[in-house]
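REQUEST FORM: STRUCTURE PREDICTION
Request ID: SP-0412
Submitted by: Lab K.M.
Chain count: 1
Length (residues): 411
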Amino acid sequence: MNILVTGAKGFVGRNLVENLKNIRDGKNRTRSNLVIDEIYEYDLGNTLEQLDGYCAKTDFVFNLAGVNRPKDPAEFRTGNFGFANLLLDTLKRHQNRCPVMLSSSVQATLAGRFGTSDYGISKRDGEELFFRYAEAIGTKVYVYRFPNLVGKWVRPNYNSAVGTFCYNIANDLPITVNDPTVELELLFIDDLLEELYDAMEGHPHRAEYPKTGEQIDGVTYDGLSPRACESGQYCYAPVTHKATLGYIVECLHTFHAQPKTLMMPQIASGSFEKKLYSMYLSYLPEEKIAFDLDMKCDERGSFTELLKTADHGQVSVNISKPGITKGQHWHNSKWEFFIVVFGHGLIQERKVGTDEILEFEVSGEKIQAVHMLPGYTHNIINLSETENLVTVMWANEAFDPERPDTFGEKV
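STATUS: Completed
RESULT:
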């Protein structure tokens, strides 16, 4: 299969092209049905002769080219309707009936605040052009009305408030939020790509757009939201997230503070927070990619907290110099894992109030996790005379100096 991507240097185009390469080269094996031969990248730097050649050979077209921030509103029609017309005419001239995907916008609904949008009108005209084309030559077109598109490589200070917030906060620049209660519907790029792969495989998610105030199955529609419908004229990406500007900014400030607090917020699989955090990190300047940790050093070695969470404890690393014993304390309800990753040591545990000692010889040559049991005083001894002992430690709760649950007692 040969793939043509117009607007290949834009936000969606860059992400799509690089990930199509992953499928083509066998790096992404999640789409075994897709066999990609050539990827034709078309953008402003290409010629019409190149476009003509691509249209003659392509088996699927992603039309992502468009204009959204022109100096003259008249450019909306030229960029969003005019190029689409040229593309379809070129395919028609080569009698190429391959499927064509169109990147439209929710603004094309012309509902609510978008009722007089020049951009929305140009997108609506482009949609109608594609539908007429499909009917005239009997091919498939996949018209997507995207909400706010976000993710890595979004251009800040352009057409994405979230991209601007990510960039500015990552770079310690001010942001302005006029109304934190405004809610956005966000479509992250990785979720969009999964839907585009579905379209390539011939099973996109179909939808219709009920009019403002229309009620279907007890749901009142706002004119902007898709309704899943197998016979729908439009296509849509089913995984989106809604969040207020205030919450988005709150999350971003939490991410920004993480190198100082070491506190990792909840980032459940598939969650909005996980996706936003990934997007935020893509804007970090070089000087913030690496950051110092607070090593608490003394004559015995060092102890460094690496990561904390509100509900899954914390991770630290302990370095013990040759012959050194550390620990010699117990906890009531706190428990830990000690994982020696370098060196040779001995872990001892004794149930408080008894004389029996449990011993575990540990080494970086055979990595094991050893439970530090509640109610057992414990230590770790570096048995080497020449090498440091390096231990990764996980505790079930972040250390609270006001309630440390730690009581000194030799094993």
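NOTES: The chain has a mean pLDDT of 94.
Reviewed by: T.R.
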